[in-house]
Specification:
The protein is of the alpha/beta class and about 325 residues long. The protein has two domains: about 110 residues, NAD(P)-binding Rossmann-like Domain (Rossmann fold); about 180 residues, NAD(P)-binding Rossmann-like Domain (Rossmann fold, 3-Layer(aba) Sandwich). About 30% of the residues lie in helices and about 20% in strands. It has ten helices and twelve strands. The strands form two sheets. Strands 8-7-6-9-10-11-12 form a seven-stranded parallel beta sheet. Strands 2-1-3-4-5 form a five-stranded parallel beta sheet. Helix 4 packs across helix 6. The protein starts with a strand and ends in a 14-residue tail after the last helix. The mean pLDDT is about 95. The structure holds NADPH dihydro-nicotinamide-adenine-dinucleotide phosphate.
Length: about 325
């Protein structure tokens, strides 16, 4: 029997030991979870499980080799100034999570197609007003990001008959169900045709602030924004202006610059905004356990770690 690898738990926002208790129990044969700061033997800690880690935490673990995120995104880890450059940063990849994301996005896309907000307004006035129906094919959904999440969302939207465009960093071969775009020209072409824009990008220096006034101006008038990436993708004042003075018709926001969203924030009470509390989809406990087990196994065998991100690219 091998000795479990020590894995320090690093978070300023979550009690990881409590939140992931059953997960850590499930992988106890390969990992010994230890609270931060480690009282003794900090040099014998090769792994960390992290979410918004303390800024100075990494300096205390000189032999750290892999830091695992609890989520699909790794921006809170890469933003940590003390993160050593040679440490692998690992993310959760979970097909069930991608399916949950897809259901969440479908709620808002179908809400736009079938005008759910107008029905709600009419009901509040006891107004019986049939609004007519638009076939799915008449609604064009533009996806920013065609990774694990974006590809699942695209497949499900296309299966329901929506017209799907996707924008990614790299060029892709054409597909029957999805029209692919890349680069600045590709983004412009996508925006000009988009009725519902879904942000599924990772937060990187290139994508920070991408949802701004200049982007909103290039969408079709009355478009809906579905923002499920990260709060820092959005320039909040530009969104409010675009909703109040056009061209945006509505926005569904799941992620915010400050979370929890402060009670006095204007997003809460804006008639054209739907707020959800960063819950589009969580990684399942099983997927987090699988990531931890695979990382420990790879570290022990000296093999490449599955789902380690490209730190240069930022995702
Ligand atoms: P992936 O890493 O699998 O995919 C990222 C996609 O974004 C890729 O298609 C990539 O292009 C594209 N991309 C990255 N940078 C750029 C750029 N500069 N220009 C154009 N395209 C770019 O990520 P996931 O699909 O797993 O997740 C995406 C994000 O969704 C996460 O990082 C997280 O922020 C968010 N998320 C939010 C959740 C929530 O509950 N709200 C839950 C889960 C994820 P290419 O294909 O060319 O590499």
């Amino acid at each position: 029997m091998t000795t479990p690898l020590r894995c320090v738990l690093l978070s300023t926002t979550l009690d990881l030991a409590r939140h992931f208790g059953p997960v850590l129990a499930e992988v106890a044969d390969v990992i010994e979870a230890v609270p931060h700061p480690v009282a003794e033997g900090a040099g014998d800690v090769p792994m960390a499980l992290a979410w918004f880690p303390p800024a100075d935490a990494f300096a205390q673990y000189p032999n750290l080799r892999a830091v695992c995120s609890i989520a699909a995104g790794v921006d809170s880890l890469l933003a940590c100034p003390g993160l050593p450059p040679d440490v692998a940063v690992v993310r959760v990849v979970d097909p069930d999570q991608a399916r949950a994301m897809s259901c969440f996005v479908l709620w808002h896309v179908i809400g736009h197609q079938r005008r759910f907000r107008t029905y709600a307004e009419n009901q509040a006035r006891a107004a019986w007003r049939p609004l007519g129906q638009r076939p799915a094919g008449e609604i064009t959904v533009g996806l920013l990001g065609y990774g694990r999440m974006g590809a699942q969302v695209a497949a499900d939207l296309a299966a329901l008959g929506f017209t799907v465009l996707a924008w990614s960093r790299s060029e892709r071969p054409p597909e029957a169900a999805v029209a692919h775009h890349h680069g600045a020209e590709g983004l412009a072409a996508l925006l000009a045709r988009t009725d519902v824009l879904v942000n599924l990008l990772p937060l990187t220096p290139e994508t920070k602030g991408i949802l701004d006034a200049s982007l909103f101006r290039r969408l079709k008038p009355g478009a809906t924004l579905v923002q499920v990436g990260r709060g820092a993708h959005l320039v909040e004042a530009d969104l409010l202006a675009a909703l109040d003075d056009g061209p945006l018709g509505a926005a569904a926001l799941d992620v915010f610059a400050v979370e929890p969203l402060p009670e006095a924030h204007p997003f809460w009470r804006h008639p054209k905004i739907v707020v959800t509390p960063h819950e589009a989809c969580d990684a399942s406990p099983q997927a987090v356990a699988a990531m931890l087990r695979a990382t420990a196994t790879a570290l022990r065998a000296g093999e490449p770690i599955p789902h380690a991100v490209d730190r240069g690219r930022g995702y």
